[in-house]
Design brief:
By secondary structure, chain B is mostly helical. Chain B is about 50% helix and about 5% strand. Chain B has 4 domains: about 150 residues, no CATH class; about 60 residues, no CATH class; about 220 residues, no CATH class; about 55 residues. In chain B, the strands form 5 sheets. Chain B has a two-stranded antiparallel sheet. Chain B has a two-stranded antiparallel sheet with strand order 3-4. Chain C is mainly β. In chain C, strands 5-4-7-8-1-2-3-6 form an 8-stranded antiparallel beta sheet, with helices on one face. The interface between A and C is large, with 63 and 46 residues.
């Protein structure tokens, strides 16, 4: 092709191919491609956000937002004692001393994030609205449950589709930290952008037509942490950079997908993705995860959706690691613990029948990117189902949490 | 009739001789005679200053400061350096640099590395060590051995400071700082002496020759071996000079000289004040700019020095190293996002030749758009040595800048409107067709096929050679005699620090013929120049009755020494 | 973000590293359109026991609030008893969770300090937001307790209180 334009996606992929050919002389080019032919599209996920549907007057939380740990502690201490402990309120909720006091409110001084059943808090205020982002993961809109899901109330999507499963939203949707004015997701995104850690790469190969293609392969990869996300002078990530895929076998997976009218949809897979945010590195363990991402756009930033079941123990791990955000996020561990076990709706334990995963949905923001695999095979083996939690009775009974 | 025949025969003879000479020029061994330019003093460029400090004191010394800019003359800062003076604020900056460098050299972490001896008592005078330090360092900084009087003055200075402050190293530091502010260091002077082989004529001293050779080929101060050769009289001509010249040419340090030459030729110092509009070109940040400059130099060094290829192929080569940051501009993957990946662009790629590299196309553009005029002018002036006059000061740009009212979508259309003015057209027609060939590259060197939704037309011609696109322009440049003539012209001017004028025409022709017969290889050109008589030739300056006599160096140094500054 | 929100953020303080890095990168999803004619209700249980400092009095009270979201007008009915001394002010404060304090933003005793007091006031967008978030409280200040004798957080209630029927 004589002239190679930049923006049009079909031609962008053509350039990627041409450039691929160019680089091939002196470098192995995308050695992990499906090998079926067709073009390869690459994306870097530069924004990751738990999808929380909110209404202008917070009507999905008719009793108000979830009570934070400080409030629950404060209400449980007699007035004279707490005035002394907080020096008449001059020791404010966010200070270290008070955070420590308020979280060590178990009867024997236990940290209630590590021993959530040591106290009996009022029930968590969960979402009571009828609308949520996400997908119908279990193929059922009645909420009665299926062989792969436990009974639970379904949502409808903002555009009216029934059967939406999103129990993570139900649990966290009325918690200040995860809502639009809370900092938890904004902070996590900012830290990922600044440190370049915890970034997912998406590689779509075998693309014959970015508008409609019955079969493509999609690899979810972990970006090599050492490759910095280049940013413009407003600290937004720039497109068309090259990143190396981290071959660490723990992360990543491959899924089949299809493109319909420019929208890529992937089949469900079990996959562990890298996650970093709020000073916390941890794997994100997803089951039956699928993605919807428009792949024919010319804009720099393109938003898509990832939905699936988050392993319950992994979700609890995430909440526990956010313990230091109890005040600024205004949440409390025991309430979440009880609620999550009650509301878990995916992958019933064959012995106990209790569900071991929570339906979830995330909004992702991507930029076009090139992905280098070096000499290593990409971590793209379709993994077996993650080992089920041994017992859901008391997940946090040991400091380690869960036996895997 | 007879007159005409004689006349014709005379001219015929002249033409025949000229033709024979031209044909033989390539094989001719004899360099034409040429009177050299008058001797001059040239201020060190920033890069030369840095290289010198690195070579004398080691890479651990950090040189942080601002340098007074040098002007360009005849297209080169190497020539403009001979017109440079130092402003009071510039002198202050050199002073700050000198003090900073001197204090780093004597700092406890560095002193064992940088200084050749240790005093008996770090709190007291140690003349033997002081002398050793100042004579050794002075020789390298002044590019000649210090005279006894100079050395005595520095030792006295060092002793005085040591006594006052009770610290041997403070004394050394003051002395070194004084040396670093001296004109003997900051200026490379063409010191001359009577030529014993040509009575009545002048020649450069051996030390001056060493400095000229070293700054040409290595862009740095003469090393110990070269200075020793000068001191032993081996640089007065013949085998000694050839040996040293060959040594410098064969050293990997030749890369510094080549980089410095092309940085000067291609005005890469303009990168220091280049800014792109971050809203229009968000991808073109500081890293991309630095990498663009580096990519251009790496391409040149790889092609001309490492592979020793034809200079003309620089304009048609499809190979270039690409960094991770540049990969975003090219919108292509790179094997090593944190380093450099050697790339060969495919045959139909628009990227061909160095004028399509960002180091050229983005440098010669505006902050928020491309500029066919700036690019065309850069090709004419930098690559073809053809002077393009400045525009007059009273131009009306409204038609050009306002695409919507004039319904001009592309740069070509805007320039067509602008060039309806005859006075504008006369200059624009020699630059615009060149720059318009590069219009597929926007102001940040990113490829595009349309501007404002209108397809870009890159057809044009260069001095009669027509082309369809940038690749064609590259071919035209490769075939242009002006391009190869220009690099020869510039190389000679750069090497000797003086513009090439009419009196040098024969020399330039001779050099060019050799360049051509050698397959246009740069190493050969540098070798020819460095081993030529013209490289070192100087002639007596014309007397200027009104000129003030040169200042007394000792007095200047005394004024510069820290104890005399308020 | 306005100054009030920033002040509250400073009060709530921020994750250990300092100011959070507001990611321009990915904003929260847009809100659906505001329903017209919306009214939301709040109830406050006012008590001596709710202050951040110890006030050994017996003062108690109740308050019901209606927020008209079209006009951002707040209507209230507030009553109290067993104050230790004459009341000097009855004010609405925000933003603050229970166990923390905030600045006075509305004078709830505009018609008078006697119990019951009822009135209306216009809120700003931010103040309405804090109220919906649960970060507002009513405070009765008296001669003896100049920092406030009895306090009650405004908790959202699902049904319209009797006072507004």
């Amino acid at each position: 092709m004589a002239n190679v334009p930049m923006m049009s996606p079909a031609l962008r992929t053509g350039l990627a191919l041409a450039a691929c050919g160019a680089v091939a002389l002196l470098a192995g080019c995308g050695s992990s491609s499906s090998g079926k032919g067709g073009k390869t599209l690459g994306f870097a996920v530069v924004g990751w956000r738990t999808s929380v549907y909110e209404t202008p007057y917070m009507d999905e939380c008719p009793d108000g937002l979830a009570q934070g740990n400080d409030e629950l502690w404060w209400k449980g201490v007699p007035p004279e004692e707490r005035a002394m402990l907080t020096r008449d309120g001059t020791i404010e909720p966010v200070t270290g001393t008070r955070r420590a006091m308020s979280v060590l409110r178990g009867p024997k001084g236990e940290d209630v994030c590590w021993h959530p059943t040591s106290v009996k808090d009022p029930p968590l205020r969960v979402v009571e609205g009828d609308t949520s982002y996400g997908l119908d993961l279990d193929g059922d809109a009645t909420g009665k449950g299926t062989p792969m899901s436990c009974p639970h109330v379904n949502f409808k999507s903002p555009d009216g589709r029934p059967g939406i499963d999103n129990q993570v939203y139900r649990i966290l949707g009325c918690t200040y930290g995860w809502r639009r004015h809370g900092y938890i997701e904004d902070n996590a995104n900012g830290e990922r952008r600044d440190t370049s850690h915890g970034i997912v790469l998406i590689e779509v190969s075998g693309v014959d037509d970015p508008l409609n293609d019955e079969q493509v392969e999609v690899a979810f990869l972990k970006k090599f942490d050492g490759d910095t996300l280049p940013k413009d002078n407003r600290a937004d990530v720039l497109p068309h950079a090259t990143y190396r895929a981290d071959p660490t076998p723990r992360y990543g997976g491959k899924a089949r997908g299809r493109i319909v009218n420019g929208m890529l949809e992937t089949d469900p897979i079990d996959v562990t993705l890298p996650f970093y945010g709020n000073l916390t590195h941890l794997p994100l363990v997803m089951k039956g995860m699928r993605m919807q991402l428009p792949v024919n756009k010319t804009e720099r930033f393109v938003e898509g959706q990832i939905a699936g079941y988050q392993d319950l123990a992994n979700f609890w791990d995430y909440i526990q690691r956010y313990e230091y955000l109890l005040v600024t996020g205004q949440f409390s561990c025991p309430g979440i613990y009880v609620a999550m076990k009650e509301l878990a709706d995916g992958y019933p334990d064959p012995k106990t029948g209790e569900c071991t995963a929570l339906s979830a949905a995330f909004t992702i923001r991507t930029v076009p990117a090139f992905i280098e695999h070096g000499d290593n095979e990409p971590s793209g083996v379709v993994k077996p189902v993650v080992t089920q939690v041994a017992s859901t009775k008391d997940v946090a009974s040991t400091k380690d949490g869960v036996k895997r | 009739m007879i007159l005409t025949r004689t006349f014709a025969r005379g001219w015929l003879g002249a033409f025949a001789t000229a033709a024979v000479l031209t044909v033989l020029a390539g094989c001719a061994q004899r360099e034409p005679d040429a009177a050299g330019p008058p001797p001059a003093m040239r201020r060190l460029t920033e890069q030369q200053y840095r290289n010198t400090i690195r070579d004398v004191f080691g890479p651990g010394i950090s040189v942080v400061g601002r340098f007074d800019p040098l002007s360009r003359e005849g297209g080169l800062m190497a020539v403009g350096a001979s017109k440079a003076s130092i402003t009071p604020s510039g002198f202050e900056r050199f002073g700050e640099l000198a003090e900073s460098i001197a204090s780093q050299v004597v700092a406890p972490a560095n002193r064992d590395y940088g200084l050749p001896c240790t005093p008996a008592d770090a709190k007291a005078i140690d003349d033997a060590c002081t002398r050793q330090i100042f004579s050794g360092t002075g020789r390298l900084l002044y590019r000649r051995a210090l005279t006894e009087a100079e050395l005595a003055r520095f030792v006295a200075l060092g002793d005085k400071v040591t006594t006052t402050l009770g610290d041997f190293y403070e004394g050394i530091s003051f002395g070194l700082a004084a040396m670093l502010q001296s004109p003997e260091f900051l200026f490379v002077a063409d010191v001359t002496e009577a030529d014993p082989q040509a009575p009545g004529k002048m020649r450069l001293t051996a030390h001056a020759r060493a400095a000229r050779l070293s700054y040409f080929l290595w862009d740095s101060t003469p090393d110990d071996a070269l200075l020793a050769a000068a001191e032993k009289g081996e640089l007065d001509g013949g085998d000694g000079l050839a040996t040293q010249t060959r040594r410098l040419l064969e050293s990997p340090r030749l890369e510094h000289g080549v980089r410095a030459f092309f940085s000067d030729l291609l005005t890469l110092d303009a990168f220091d004040h280049m800014q792109k509009d971050a809203a229009i070109y968000p991808s073109f940040g500081l890293t991309v700019a630095d990498d663009a400059r580096e990519q251009l130099l790496r391409t040149i060094v790889q092609h001309l020095l490492v592979e020793g290829e034809d200079y003309r192929e620089l304009f048609t080569t499809r190979r270039a190293p690409v960094s991770g940051a540049l990969g975003m501009i090219y919108q292509m993957p790179v094997k090593d996002p944190n380093g450099w990946t050697e790339v060969e662009f495919p045959k139909d790629s628009p990227y061909r030749g160095i004028v399509t590299l960002p180091g050229f196309s983005a440098l010669h553009s505006h902050a928020g758009r491309s500029s066919p005029t700036l690019r065309g002018r850069a090709v004419r002036e930098l690559l073809m040595c053809q002077r393009v006059p400045d525009p007059p000061s009273n131009i009306d740009f409204t038609q050009f800048n306002n695409a919507s009212t004039t319904k001009a979508s592309t740069a070509r259309e805007r320039l067509d409107i602008h060039n309806t003015e005859k006075t504008c057209a006369s200059c624009h027609k020699i630059v615009d067709p060149i720059g318009l060939a590069l219009e597929h590259f926007d102001g940040a060197a990113q490829f595009r096929t349309v501007e404002n939704a209108v397809k870009i037309d890159t057809r044009g011609e260069l001095d009669g050679v027509k082309y369809e696109d940038a690749a064609g322009l590259g071919e035209a440049l490769a075939k242009s005699p002006a391009v190869t003539q220009c690099v020869v012209n510039r190389a000679l001017a750069y090497a000797r620090g003086t513009s090439v004028g009419k009196t040098d025409n024969e020399m330039v022709s001779w050099l060019h013929a050799k360049f051509e017969s050698d397959g246009y290889r740069l190493r050969g050109l540098f070798e020819t120049i460095a081993t030529s008589e013209a490289f070192y030739a100087v002639s007596a300056p014309k007397a200027d009755p009104g000129a003030t006599p040169p200042a007394n160096t000792a007095a200047l140094e005394a004024a510069a020494s820290p104890e005399n500054r308020s | 973000m306005n100054v009030c929100r920033r002040t509250f953020v400073a009060l709530l303080a921020v994750p250990a590293l300092g100011a959070p890095l507001l990611a321009r990168a990915q904003a929260a999803p847009p809100l659906p359109p505001k329903p017209v004619g919306a009214r939301r209700y709040f109830h406050a249980e006012i008590s001596w026991a709710n202050n951040t400092y110890y006030t050994p009095s017996k003062a108690v009270g109740k308050a019901d609030f209606e927020l008209d979201l079209d006009s951002l007008t707040l209507h209230w009915v507030l009553s109290y008893q067993d104050l230790s001394s004459l009341p000097t002010a009855i004010t609405l404060h925000s933003p603050a969770q229970p166990g923390a304090t905030g600045a006075a933003i509305v004078d709830l005793a505009v018609p008078g300090l006697a119990s019951p007091t009822r009135g209306s006031a216009k809120l700003s967008d931010a103040q309405a937001e804090y109220l919906l978030t649960g970060w507002s409280y009513a405070l009765i200040t008296t001669r003896k307790y100049i920092k406030g004798e009895a306090r009650g957080q405004l908790d959202r209630v699902r049904t319209k209180p009797a006072a507004f029927l």
